[in-house]
Amino acid sequence: MNPPQDAHKFVQAHVQHNGRQLQYIRSCFAAIAGSAAGILGLTNLSGFLFYALSWTLLSVLLLSRTSGGSKYFMNGYKDIVFNGAVGGLLSYVLFHTLLYGLVHLYQ
């Protein structure tokens, strides 16, 4: 993947910091969403739809907060919307399984 034409405008240390902060936000939000889905007892397709809905909601919030991300990320909205989707899904499944097992174990 080639860097954008205006890549010289970005300071690499700041771009890396923004990426780390975005990853931290995504991980925390995936843990919260997975915990909520586990407590609510969402399984199968409804659990993954809840993840997709929560990922979309967080992406919209981040896009509105960063004005599209073009000033803060090298690839703009692509970094905000698509990066970390699989890692977020793994965190979501981990917390969903934990909380679902704790809450719905003896039902």
How is this structure best summarized?
Helix 1 (12-40) packs parallel to helix 4.
Write the layout of secondary structure elements.
Elements: H1 12-40, H2 44-66, H3 77-81, H4 85-103
Helix pairs in contact: 1-2, 1-4
Describe the structure.
It is a single chain. The protein has 107 residues and is mainly alpha-helical. Helix content is 71%, strand content 0%. The chain has a domain at 47-63 and 75-106. The protein is built from 4 helices and no strands. The protein is elongated.
- Shape field: elongated
Low-pLDDT runs of 5+ residues are: none
Helix content: over 70%
Ends distance: 50 Å
Mean pLDDT: 84
Number of helical segments?
4
E-strand count: 0
Rg over CA atoms, rounded to whole Å, is: 16 Å
The secondary-structure class comes to: mainly alpha
Describe the main β-sheet briefly: none
> In percent, how much strand structure appears in the residues?
under 5%
What series of H and E elements makes up the topology? HHHH
Tags for this entry?
single chain; mainly alpha; 4 helices; elongated
